[in-house]
Amino acid sequence: MGSFAQHASIGILSGLTISAISFQCSQLHIIDSIACGALCTLSNFVPDIDSQHSKPARTIKDIITTCITSYIIYILPHIDFSVYIVIALSTFFLLQYIFSFILSRITVHRGMFHSIPAILIWSCIVYNACYSSTELSKIYLTCSAAIGYLLHLIIDELYGLIDISGGTFYPKKSSGTALKFISTSLWGTILCYSILLCLLWFSYQ
């Protein structure tokens, strides 16, 4: 699989490209275009969230919990600032613990987070999170997220077939484990498709 530096390079480059294309070829506001690029870059790290001790996993967990905490505070009614602080800190640390606990129990590295259904799940999450945006912005943001996620899986698959440093072509044990539809875990596969079906149903309501 690709290293953190390689994924980061691809993620940043693809994010900048997405930002430029969305701004030049559509009627998106420049802020929305920047958001598309940022989301594409972020999505490039999401598949590695199942690696419990990796730097990308810790970073993604921090970003996701921060976004959820910010959203919860955003929808709260007007209350005292001190109450906001207590709610924000409590929510953040609780989510960190719950998120890490759940992931450590139900995921393994190169499991269903590295799969085609996972791309669709991430895309549905982004689409529903952008409920207040225009339809055009939602489409661009969702596609940006999907592209970033897919690029990560493609890079991992390429490293499963070729040793970039030496130019040697040979299939590794990791070959075929990124762009897949099912995993070796039956329950993991069932859970993944169940989540996907629920999100698809919710997206079209």
What does the model show?
With 205 residues, the protein is mostly helical. It has seven helices and two strands, in the order H-H-H-H-H-H-E-E-H. It has a two-stranded antiparallel ribbon. A hairpin with a 4-residue loop joins strand 1 (162-163) and strand 2 (168-169). The mean pLDDT is 80.
Can you give me a brief rundown of this structure?
The chain is mostly helical. The protein has seven helices and two strands.
Q: What are the main properties of this structure?
A:
single chain; two-stranded antiparallel ribbon; 68% helix; 205 residues; mainly alpha; 2 strands
- Terminus-to-terminus distance: 38 Å
Mean pLDDT score, rounded?
A: 80
Helix content percent band: 55-70%
Q: DSSP strand (E) fraction?
A: under 5%
Calculate Rg over CA atoms.
Answer: 18 Å
**Poorly predicted ranges (pLDDT <50, ≥5 residues)?**
none
Oligomer: single chain
SSE layout and pairing:
Blueprint: H1 4-24, H2 30-43, H3 55-75, H4 81-106, H5 116-129, H6 135-159, E1 162-163, E2 168-169, H7 186-203
Antiparallel strand pairs: 1-2
Helix pairs in contact: 1-2, 1-6, 2-6, 3-4, 5-6, 5-7
